[in-house]
Fold this sequence. Notes:
- By secondary structure, the protein is mainly alpha-helical.
- The chain has five helices and no strands.
Amino acid sequence: MKTVILTPQDIDRVIEMAWEDRTPFEAIEHQFGLLEKEVIELMRSQMKASSFKMWRKRTHGRATKHKKLSTVDDSRFKSTLQRVITSNKISKR
């Protein structure tokens, strides 16, 4: 397993992306190099136990958190300013 060093801003963004219903774990892996298991470990270490349990209950088995299971159409509207607003490292295009 590779070691990924994240800044406090990166950690905040990973947590934000993990909370979003329509952001798949694959997007977090592509952008930050963290596997689903590593995102779960990060969330566990950064959140209160009750918040972590609530998050796991929401995401466990949710199809939109896994790109292969998702039926969400990627052609839906995306703002051209999305990268600027969210400070994403990679372009959404």
